[in-house]
Amino acid sequence: MAGWRGEITLEITAELVKTLRDRTDAGMMDCKKALKETAGDLDAAVAYLRQKGLAVASKRAGRTAAEGCVWAHVSQDHRSGVLLEVNCESDFVAKTDSFQELGSRLAEQLAGAA
């Protein structure tokens, strides 16, 4: 009985991990860890992931979004315009192409909706 520590190992299958991922949209490794922590119980794993998400969110609650950009857009008929400010936590995020595209598209949509 070399190596016996009194632990029971549970085989977490890829199918079980996929099922949990489909239900929660969590990452693969997070799903696998949640299933190991809950002995393969899907409902308990979902609750585990929710609680973990709440803990991460509470850590970020005190952070400020002091960086960002401002976009201006005028509608096609020149009757309305929009000034949009979107904030984020770092200037590195604010400078990314995807963040710039998000702001531009949002401003365009808002101007068109007015």
Describe the structure.
This protein is α+β, with helices and mostly antiparallel strands. The chain has 2 domains: 47 residues, Helicase, Ruva Protein, domain 3, CATH 1.10.8; 47 residues, no CATH class. Helices cover 54% and strands 14% of the residues. The protein has a two-stranded antiparallel ribbon with strand order 1-2. A hairpin with a 6-residue loop joins strand 1 and strand 2. Helix 1 crosses helix 2, helix 1 packs across helix 3 and helix 2 crosses helix 3. The longest helix is centred in the middle third of the chain and has 19 residues.
In short:
This protein has 114 residues and is an alpha+beta fold.
Secondary structure: helix percent: 40-55%
Shape: elongated
Low-confidence stretches: none
As for the number of domains, it is: 2
Oligomer: single chain
Q: In CATH, what is the class of the largest domain?
A: Mainly Alpha
Global structural class: alpha+beta
What is the residue-mean pLDDT, rounded to a whole number? 84
End-to-end distance, in Å?
Answer: 74 Å
Major sheet strand order = 1-2
Going by CATH, the architecture of the largest domain would be Orthogonal Bundle
How many helical stretches?
5
- Overall radius of gyration: 23 Å
